[in-house]
Design brief:
17% of the residues lie in helices and 46% in strands. It has one helix spanning 2-23; strands spanning 28-30, 34-41, 46-54, 62-67, 72-76, 86-93, 100-109, 115-125. The protein contains one helix and eight strands, in the order αββββββββ. The strands form two sheets. The chain has a four-stranded antiparallel beta sheet with strand order 1-3-6-5, with no helix packed on it.
C-alpha cells in the first residue's frame, strides 16, 4: 500500500511540475489573424504585416512558417521576441492568376500552442487597361 501511495505522489508531482512549466511558455497575441485584401489587380503583388505580442513568460521563437503554395511568401522576425515585446510576420501574395483565394500560413514555434495558423484572402481581378 505504501508503494502505491508513493507512486501516486510521484505521478501527481510530475503532473504538477509539467502543468506549471506549460503555463510559463511563450504565447502569441495577434492584432488580427486574418487579412482580407479585397479585390486586387492581376500581376500586382500585395503585402500585409501581421503584428503580434509575446504575452507569455519565455522568449517566443518562430522556427518556421509554411505556406500552401509558392504564391504566398512569408518573412518573419528571426530573433527571439521577449515577454511583452512585439514581432511582425510579413506576407506577400503574388496575384498571378485571376480567382478568389484563401491561404493559410502555418507558424511553428516554441509557444504554448506550438502550431498556429494565420490567413489571407481576397479576389484577383483583371488588371485595368493601360
Amino acid at each position: 500500500m505504501k508503494k502505491l501511495i508513493i507512486l501516486c505522489s510521484v505521478v501527481f508531482l510530475f503532473a504538477s511540475v509539467s502543468a506549471v512549466k506549460a503555463q510559463n511558455k511563450a504565447e502569441f497575441k495577434f492584432v488580427t489573424e486574418t487579412h482580407d485584401f479585397g479585390k486586387i489587380p492581376q500581376g500586382k503583388p500585395v503585402t500585409v504585416d501581421f503584428k503580434f505580442t509575446n504575452i507569455g513568460d519565455e522568449p517566443l521563437i518562430i522556427s518556421n512558417i509554411a505556406s500552401v503554395c509558392g504564391c504566398t511568401v512569408p518573412k518573419y522576425t528571426n530573433t527571439p521576441v521577449l515577454k511583452g515585446q512585439t514581432g511582425t510576420i510579413t506576407v506577400t501574395y503574388n496575384s498571378a492568376a485571376m480567382s478568389f483565394f484563401s491561404k493559410g500560413l502555418t507558424i511553428t514555434s516554441n509557444a504554448k500552442t506550438p502550431t498556429k495558423v494565420i490567413y489571407i484572402k481576397g479576389e484577383v481581378i483583371a488588371a485595368p487597361a493601360k
